[in-house]
Amino acid sequence: MKEYWGSLASVLGVLAFCQSLLQVLFPPELRFAALKLFNRIFNVFNSYCYFDITEIDGVNTNELYNAVQLYLSSSVSISGSRLSLTRALNSSAITFGLTNNDTLFDTFNGVNVLWEHIVTQRQAQTFSWRPMPDEKRGFTLRIKKKDKSLILDSYLDYIMEKANDIRRKNEDRLLYTNSRGGSLDSRGHPWESVPFKHPSTFETLAMDPAKKGEIMEDLKDFANGQSFYQKTGRAWKRGYLLYGPPGTGKSSMIAAMANYLGYDIYDLELTEVHNNSELRKLLMKTSSKSIIVIEDIDCSINLSNRKKGTANNSSIGRSYCDPEMRSGPGVGTGDEGGNSITLSGLLNFTDGLWSCCGSERIFVFTTNHVDKLDPALLRSGRMDMHVFMNYCSFPALKILLKNYLGREESDLDEGVLKELEEVIDKAEMTPADISELLIKNRRNKDKAVIELLEALKERAERKSKSGECVREKNLNDVEEEEQEKRALDSPKEGCAFDESCKKDEEDEEKKIK
Ligand SMILES: Nc1ncnc2c1ncn2[C@@H]1O[C@H](COP(=O)(O)OP(=O)(O)OP(=O)(O)O)[C@@H](O)[C@H]1O
Ligand SMILES: [Mg+2]
């Protein structure tokens, strides 16, 4: 053993001696040139090329580093025994990554590449306004020289895209609102956000399964349709109009859409937007893969009215649906002096050139009164899908019974089921009303079903009675109208009327004279 240490010491001594001899014999310039030459020769014979992706590029964080880290964390073939675990802010998932000098093979388009994570200690800190981390971290990508041009660009694009997907999947959805009324936050952002935790999904949504399936298909096609939209020269966006009585699930449907696609929601409060240019700015600050929602579009905005209202208060209370208002000078031309929001501004927002800044966005408008909407908003190509959210139907009821009481169709008494089916359409009850009833009695499931049936029957009866009254009233009205018409059309009576009018006029003229 002693001999071994002795010989090692002598070898090291010889090496140190050679090094100092080289330093004496060759000046630094010569050594540097020799090293350069050696590197060149090495590169000529080396069949690989290397790319360094450092964590910090100058003073900025390198987005590509984070993307590579996230992308590699999704790889199942990490062989290292030590992995780093991270959980980002707003995230409900944990990601893992490579630790120091760990390596990982990856394959892209049939080409093998090697990733190495390199961590070194940062040398003595130079002065910087921004504190630098103690460690210098980076990835080195090794690719065969012949494959370099084949994959480099597309591979890096692929990594960025994949990382964004993982980030979106890991992060909770965000719900944005512009309720600050146009003021900006410290970063100049007009939107405020909170984590979006709405539990509504397409499974919990009570509606006709065929219609639901159609909407889900449409959303999937949209999300996967980048190349289709590019090929057809259309902006990558889609418009949904959800209409129907209150409590039929319009807002729940929006939440289900966001959860299904993993998109954020921008809840646009139009009453807080002062003019068209503000609307445009809000649009520009929305991210792609998002749903932009305007709820109760018929009530949330009095388009040209707002402009007229400032000049003449008598017009307050009239909506943009009023044809007179629509054809007014302020509508349809664009900014209109820049101090009001107009129908054309809104249409530009959803449909015009500005709507394409960013991509992959869904616009959803909701209303309880589709008949009040301007035809310009409804014309084809503007709102691609018109979805009528109706009162609870029998298939929708079955979904509610399953979700709230855990009762499948087969668990229910056949007679009760039949009665429910007969009465549900006549009762015209909303899913919101039905779910309230089911929640109230959810501990006693049989009682819940019986009470629901009774409530539906009672309601159906009331509806049919009120329907009869309305029908009777309508008949009376029609009869009265016809009588009036007959009275007006009758020549004799008409003459008498004309004569008496003439007489009155003559008397009036005499008085004046
Ligand atoms: N189709 C549905 N499926 C499941 N739950 C529903 C449905 N419709 C309504 N609900 C229940 O009723 C509540 C109210 O529904 P929601 O807010 O979605 O109705 P809405 O159509 O948006 O009403 P409004 O027109 O008043 O905005 C929801 O929280 C949900 O629990
Ligand atoms: Mg709603």
Overall mean pLDDT: 77
Strand content: 15-25%
Which range best describes the helical content: under 10%, 10-25%, 25-40%, 40-55%, 55-70% or over 70%? 40-55%
Alpha carbon gyration radius: 36 Å
Report the CATH superfamily of the largest domain: P-loop containing nucleotide triphosphate hydrolases
- Ligands in the structure? adenosine-5'-triphosphate, magnesium ion
- N-C termini distance: 146 Å
Q: What would you call the quaternary organization?
A: single chain
Strand order of the largest sheet: 10-9-12-13-14-11-15
Give the CATH architecture of the largest domain: 3-Layer(aba) Sandwich
Structural class: alpha/beta
Number of strands: 15
Domain module tally: 3
The biggest sheet, with number of strands, parallel, antiparallel or mixed sense and barrel status, is: 7 strands, mixed
CATH class categorisation of the largest domain: Alpha Beta
Parts with pLDDT < 50 across at least 5 consecutive residues = 303-338, 491-502
Q: What is the fold named in CATH at topology level of the largest domain?
A: Rossmann fold
Summarize the structure.
This protein is of the alpha/beta class and 513 residues long. The protein has 18 helices and 15 strands.
Description of the molecule:
Residues 461-476, 483-492, 499-513 have a biased composition (Basic and acidic residues). Residues 461-513 are annotated as: Disordered. Belongs to the AAA ATPase family. BCS1 subfamily. It comes from Populus trichocarpa. Helix content is 49%, strand content 16%. It has 513 residues and is of the alpha/beta class. The protein folds into 3 domains: 23-123 and 132-170, no CATH class; 174-388, Rossmann fold; 394-486, no CATH class. It contains 18 helices and 15 strands. α15 (414-427) runs parallel beside α17. β4 (83-86) and β5 form a beta hairpin. The radius of gyration is 36 Å and the shape is elongated. The strands form 4 sheets. A 7-stranded mixed sheet has the order 10-9-12-13-14-11-15. Strands 1-8-7-6 form a 4-stranded antiparallel sheet. A two-stranded antiparallel sheet has the order 2-3. It has helices at residues 2-25, 28-45, 63-73, 148-170, 209-223, 226-232, 250-261, 276-284, 297-300, 303-311, 323-326, 343-351, 375-378, 394-405, 414-427, 431-440, 445-489, 491-512; strands spanning 48-54, 56-57, 60-61, 83-86, 95-98, 103-108, 111-121, 135-144, 173-177, 192-196, 237-243, 264-267, 290-294, 361-367, 385-388. Adenosine-5'-triphosphate binds at residues 204-207, 246-252, 368, 389, 431-432, 435.
